[in-house]
Amino acid sequence: MLPYSQASENNKLPILSILQRYFHPVSSVLEIGSGTAQHGEFFAEQFPDISWQCSDIPENLGTTQQRIVANALQNLPTAIRLNVDEKKWGCATYDCVFTANSLHIMAYDSVVNFFKGLPQCLKPNALVLLYGPFKYAGEFTTESNAKFDIWLKQQNPICGVRDFERVLELAEGAGLSFLEDNPMPANNQLLVFRQS
Ligand SMILES: C[S@@+](CC[C@H](N)C(=O)[O-])C[C@H]1O[C@@H](n2cnc3c(N)ncnc32)[C@H](O)[C@@H]1O
Description:
This protein has one domain (6-195): Rossmann fold. The protein has six helices and eleven strands. It has helices at residues 6-22, 38-46, 58-71, 108-117, 143-155, 164-173, and strands at residues 28-31, 51-53, 55-56, 80-81, 94-100, 122-132, 134-136, 139-140, 162-163, 176-184, 188-195.
C-alpha cells in the first residue's frame, strides 16, 4: 500500500484545470512539501514534457519516495530533501514552484523562510502556485475553515490557516507579482504568482 491522501485525490483535477491554463511554456516544476507524491505522480502523467521534481523535509522523504519509485515515471525524478528553514535549498532553478497544503502545516516562521528562500530556485518569470486555505481581512472564508484552524492548532500549535494579505506581502517581498486567486473545492484557494 502506497502512502495516500484523500485530499490530494479530491483536489488534483481542480488544480489540473488551473495548471493547464498556465503551463505554457513550463518545462520544470519544483514541488515543495510533496507528502505522498500523489500530485507529482498525477501531474507528471498529465504533463509528460514537464519534469516534476518532488521534495520534502528529510523526515518525510521516505514517504514521498515510495510512490515515485513505484511508478518510475521518466519525468518524475527521485525526490530531493528540501526544508524551507535551511538557508541554502541546494536546488536547481525551475520554471514553476508548486506547493499544496503546506503553508498551514509549517510554522509561520517557516512560511517567512519559504518566501525568503524561494528566489534561489526560480528561473526568470517563473510561476509560483500556492494551494490551500487562506483567511481574508482576518476572516475565515467559511465556518468549516474556522473549525479546521482550531483542529490544526490542537494537533500542533505551530499550524494555522494563513492570512492572504500576509502571504501577498511576503510574496511581493520575494519579487513576485500576484496574478490570480482561484477558489477551489473544499474552501481552498489556488494563488498564482509570477516572478517579475
Ligand atoms: C499536509 S502535507 C501536504 C502534502 C502534499 N503537498 C499534499 O497536498 O497532500 C504538508 C507537507 O508540508 C511539508 N513540510 C512541513 N514543513 C516543511 C518545511 N519546513 N519545509 C518543507 N516542507 C515542509 C510536510 O513534510 C508535508 O509533506
